Amino acid sequence: QVQLVESGGGLVPPGGSLTLSCAASGFTFEYYAIAWFRQAPGKEREAVACIGSRTYYEDSAKGRFTISRDNAKNTVYLQMNSLKPEDTAVYYCNVRFSFRDYWGQGTQVTVSA
Length: 113
Description:
Number of strands: 11
Radius of gyration: 13 Å
Number of helices: 0
Largest sheet: 7 strands, mixed
Helix content: under 10%
Structural class: mainly beta
């Protein structure tokens, strides 16, 4: 079955960096686009970045975040630099497989002094 497992979250001061990982299984990884979303307390889940044959970034992530993938490891990464308190959220990875959205359990990112 399709599984997505996020890791790499934590507490980081403003201006710091983190790299999140999303390990995938249960489908032919290299054929599918993978997206990162985030959800802050009291807010709706929002897209952050996506990688397929091309990459896409929401405005909030442009210039600070980099999405990449290693097809040999079935893993997608989200390198986050210049983090701001407003980046605090649970970060999820997502794949749309066989007309259905799959999500991981999420990893908490907290940006605070």
